[in-house]
Amino acid sequence: MLTELHVKNLALIDEADVNFGPGLNILTGETGAGKSILIGSINLALGHKMQKDMLRKGAQSCLVELAFQIENPEIIRRLKEMDVDVEDGQLIISRKFTDGRSVCRLNGEMTTASKIRTISSLLLDIHGQHEHQKLLYPENQLEILDAYGKDRIAGPLARVQVSWSAYRGICEELKAYEIDDKERERELSFLKYEIQEIEDAALVPGEEEDLEKRYRLMSNSKKIAEALNQVHQLTGYEEGAGDMTGRAVRELSQVAEYDETLSGLSASISDIDNLLNDFNREVSEYLSEFTFSEEEFFQTEQRLDLINNLKAKYGKTTADILAYLDQQKNKLSRMENFDQQKQELIQKKEKAQQALERDCQALTEQRQAVAEELSEGIRAGLKDLNFLSVDFEIQFQKTEHYGPRGRDAITFMISTNPGESVRPLADVVSGGELSRIMLAIKTLLADKDATETLIFDEIDTGISGRTAQKVSEKMAKIGRNHQVICITHLAQIAAMADHHFEIAKSVENASTISRIRELDAGESVEELARILGGAEITQAVRDNAREMKQLAEKKKQSLETP
Length: 562
Description:
Number of helices: 19
Structural class: alpha/beta
CATH superfamily of the domain at 1-129 and 458-520: P-loop containing nucleotide triphosphate hydrolases
Strand order of the largest sheet: 2-1-4-5-6-7
Number of strands: 15
Distance between the termini: 19 Å
Shape: elongated
């Protein structure tokens, strides 16, 4: 569960620490006091984007920290699969915003907002002010059904995705056969031309590099020959270096016998003379072989032009061109056997479609079984929420086309009055009814996922009186197995609080600040009186609030733990 929230420099909050407890945590306060900012801060910590105007005026940065105490072994196991260590069941998430950038930390170690968003679904479920509107869209209804029955639906759904991928691949192949005879002839002619052009070139892997070396040599032959001739002359024995070193050898050999040091020098100069002689001879041999014809140069140039022209058309390298050749040969073979291969693909498509249809049907049957259970759970939940006469069912229709999630289109159908037939949810319910339906669904999904913390931002939209009382009892009942954090304007819901927090706005040093504090029993009654009485709180209102709190405590004691 979420044990602590720390917020600094966010909107109206300069700094706040909230210690949440188990059961039902209620947050109340005047309109505009900053209740929704508190929920917004939790969303920010869990990876949501921050609006620029959320940073407190005059502050350079803001910080949100969440501390969780996790007791569910399954959640701990799944977190470990994500390389998230939970030491002693504690997990701390923090996010700091500075100059439009944010830094996320998980148990003190830097991480990404994406990873935080991924693990947050395991830790809590946040129901925003307008989230119940999602119920009106069929695609969201299907997501709810699949989420509720995920253990049974996951296998059939995975098989549908595999068979759909195979079916779609064959359909894509068949698109290449959707051409008329004239277009086919043009395609055949073009393929033959390209294949012939590449095959006539008789490309050899690696030849381009050899040709470029040869061409570079030939195109610079005059410069090379002039340089080598000069080198040969400078190192030769006709007034060149060879002549000079030869004279040096002779001079030193005449005196070498008089000193051992001179003998060493004589040997060194002799080695130099031999090396220079070898070098000069090698240059001479290279020059004698350094001949080629104009025709050879022209042929090399033409061959390179041909290869470069093919590269411009078919690929950046010789290997790419040869790969393209194989690809076009395959296309040609397919086109030459057009009718046969098209028929084979049609047969493959029919088989793939049959397999896909079987998998879709199996998925539908599993979904229908889950839908019966979900409908029953929703009906029971709605009766707990003061739907005195309610019928709820999930209708199935087949979509026109296959998809990765099968062929099911579902519609949530409801009747809230005796004698009326069920109609689509979007055509029947009001805002208050919709929020209660979402509350019933959230309760069922939370039990399935073992989600420890549920957060509701103004779930009381559009309800009052006995319905509000029923919603409060439902919230209290959920609080027996889950931690619930709820923002509300209704005294009936606030009275059920196991932990009651007040959010109040005040002006300090010419600056507006929101403060959050947990109320004791007496303060909680006073806050209930404020909600009930409005501008003027009389003793009768206080007595009413006190009685409401006492009745709520008795109701909570009578609740049986599921």
